[in-house]
Amino acid sequence: MIENDTYQTITESPEPTLFKEKNSKFFGYAFHVKTEDDVKDCLAEVKKEHHSARHWCYAYQLGTETISYRANDDGEPSNSAGMPIYGQIQSFDVTNILIIVVRYFGGVKLGVGGLISSYRTSAQLTLEASKIVKKTINIDYLITFDYKNMNTVMRIIKEKRLNITNQKLEMNCQITISIRKKEAGAIFEIFNNLYEIEIKEMEVDK
Q1: Does 142 lie in the same domain as 109?
Q2: Boundary (domain end) residue, out of 118, 134, 150
Q3: Residue 114 to residue 132: CA distance in whole angstroms
Q4: Which one of 29, 43, 72, 189 is CB 3.0 to 4.6 Å from 100, fit for a cystine?
Q5: Distance from the first to the final alpha carbon of the chain
Q6: Per-residue pLDDT tens for 128-140?
Q7: What are the backbone dihedrals phi and psi of residue 82, each rounded to the nearest 5 degrees, phi first?
């Protein structure tokens, strides 16, 4: 990745792209995904739209620091579709993304080399049509404190310009803050050293 606490992804799907090779048509789709369930939903949506196609090949990558990926040839010769698509995901340095390339066979066989080139090109066109954004890897902390300590907590949040993502302000207060990874340790220490104020890291789906 570009820096140790940033990553690149897309936030919205572009219009589908179309690539033609010897009468075969390749429709390219890109989706922002965070889980394998997201992947399944997007695949179902595309298969419904292109129910008469021959192949729905895809690749995805999930995660920021711990990466998982999958490439699927969906009936095409081994490594002729999914891996060329995944190669473009790597080339564009993006994650939390799914690329699906739908193929309609045009009656002329392309051969393994032709398939690799076509799926790679379709994925490339799809990524070029996507708006790629840079995001920071954040750590979420839950701060717990009594209402009497509210001013102390809020003063630090204001001074450090911290991003509150959730809050419950009653007798027993809870505030969730999201901090860029490289700044998180210092913020944790500030709150951790305060009397009667508890801070702990939250497990979140990044």
Answers
A1: no
A2: 134
A3: 28
A4: 29
A5: 15
A6: 999 999 999 999 9
A7: -60, -45
Q: How far apart are CA 95 and CA 135, in angstroms?
A: 11
CATH number of domain containing 109: 3.30.230.30
166-185 pLDDT tens trace: 999 888 899 999 999 999 99
Domain identity same for 16 and 90: yes
Considering the domain architecture, whether residues 128 and 145 belong to the same structural domain is answered as no
pTM of the model: 0.81
From the list 68, 61, 26, the residue with the least C-alpha distance to 46 is 26
List Cβ neighbours of 152 (8 Å cut-off, separation of 6 or more): 145, 194, 197
**Residue located via tokens 């340095």:** 93
Residue ranges making up the domain that contains 181: 137-201
Q: Give CA–CA dist 50/44, Å, rounded.
A: 10
Using the 8-state DSSP alphabet, how is residue 15 labeled? P
